[in-house]
Amino acid sequence: MQHRYTGDIGDYAKYGLLRYLTRGFKLGVAWYLYPDEDHNSDGQHISYLSMPKKW
């Protein structure tokens, strides 16, 4: 995980998929912090955070 990815809308899809795949099981996620990269613009899909009533 990189700081720039925290809260990206893509996280919701990942969590939803994990929840679907692990029905009936307990899920553990081991995160590790990786230094931010600056060669691309990934992790910038956070505009939904300014619309809390919608999301």
Unreliable stretches? none
Helical percentage: 10-25%
* Radius of gyration (Å): 14 Å
The overall average pLDDT, rounded, is 77
Helix count?
1
- Identify the quaternary structure here: single chain
Strand residue percentage: under 5%
The biggest beta sheet is recorded as: none
Number of strands: 0
Q: What overall geometry do the principal axes of the alpha carbons give?
A: flat
Topology, please?
Elements: H1 10-21
Commentary on this structure:
- With 55 residues, the protein is mainly α.
- The protein has one domain (3-50).
- The chain is built from 1 helix and no strands.
- The chain has one helix at residues 10-21.
- The longest helix is centred in the N-terminal third of the chain and has 12 residues, at 10-21.
- It is flat and about 40 Å long.
- The two termini are 23 Å apart.
- The model has no long low-confidence stretch (mean pLDDT 77).
In short:
The protein has 55 residues and is an all-alpha fold. Helices cover 22% and strands 0% of the residues. The model has no long low-confidence stretch (mean pLDDT 77).
